[in-house]
Specification:
The chain is of the alpha/beta class. It has one domain: Rossmann fold (3-Layer(aba) Sandwich), CATH 3.40.50.150. The protein contains 8 helices and 7 strands. Helix 3 packs parallel to helix 4, helix 6 runs parallel beside helix 7 and helix 7 packs parallel to helix 8. It starts with 6 loop residues before the first helix and ends with a strand.
C-alpha cells in the first residue's frame, strides 16, 4: 500500500479504515482517486456533503493543502462532527476545513449566491442526491466536478440523480467502477 502523508495522518487513516462500515466511509482507493483528481484539477473551493468521521475530508484536505484551497464540509450528526474535527486537527488540516452542522439541504439553501464550488463530493443520504445536485449546480463553476459515492451499491436510491445529470447537456458524466461505484460529472457550461 502506497503512503501519501506523514506518519500521523497515515495512522489516523488506517484507524478510520478499520471502522469503515460503522461510519460509511469511502474506500481507500476512492480517497486516493479524489486526492489525485483535486490535485490534477487544481481545485480551490471544495464542498463535501457527509463529513462522517472525517476520513474522506482528510483526503480532500490534504490535496487542498497542496493546491492552497479550502474544504467546506457538511455533517448532520453532532457526534460525527466532533470526531471529524478532532481528526482534522490531529492531521493538521483544520485550518483548511470549515465544518457546517445540519441538514445538507438546509445548509446548502443558506449558502450565499456568490459561494463558488470547483469540486463537490457527495456521500450522504442517497435519496437526497438529486436535491443536493439541484442546489449545488448554480454554485458549481464551469469546468468543476461533482463526484458521488455509492452509485452502484445504492442504485435504486441514486437512480433519479443519475437520470437527471445524464439528461443535462451541460454535464459529462461517467460512472467509475470503484468500490460502491463513483459518479464523476464535469460541468461543461453554465
Amino acid at each position: 500500500m502506497k503512503t501519501y502523508f506523514d506518519q500521523t495522518t497515515e495512522q489516523i487513516l488506517s484507524d478510520l479504515e478499520k471502522t469503515q462500515k460503522n461510519f460509511w466511509n469511502i474506500s481507500r482507493v476512492t480517497g486516493e482517486f479524489l486526492y489525485t483528481l483535486i490535485l490534477a484539477s487544481n481545485s480551490q473551493n471544495v464542498l463535501e456533503i457527509g463529513t462522517s468521521n472525517g476520513y474522506s475530508g482528510i483526503w480532500l484536505g490534504k490535496a487542498l493543502e497542496k493546491t492552497g484551497g479550502h474544504l467546506t464540509t457538511i455533517e448532520f450528526w453532532e457526534k460525527r462532527y466532533s470526531i471529524a474535527q478532532k481528526n482534522f486537527e490531529t492531521c493538521k488540516i483544520d485550518n483548511r476545513i470549515s465544518i457546517l452542522e445540519g441538514s445538507a439541504c438546509d445548509v446548502l439553501k443558506k449558502l450565499p449566491a456568490d459561494f463558488k464550488i470547483d469540486f463537490a463530493f457527495i456521500d450522504a443520504n442517497k435519496r437526497e442526491y438529486i436535491e443536493y445536485f439541484k442546489l449545488i449546480d448554480p454554485l458549481l463553476t464551469p469546468g468543476g466536478y461533482i463526484a458521488c459515492d455509492n452509485i452502484l451499491s445504492h442504485i435504486e436510491k441514486t437512480r433519479s440523480f443519475i437520470d437527471e445529470i445524464n439528461s443535462r447537456t451541460n454535464y459529462e458524466n461517467v460512472i467509475l467502477n470503484l468500490p460502491a461505484g463513483l459518479s464523476l460529472a464535469k460541468k461543461i457550461t453554465r
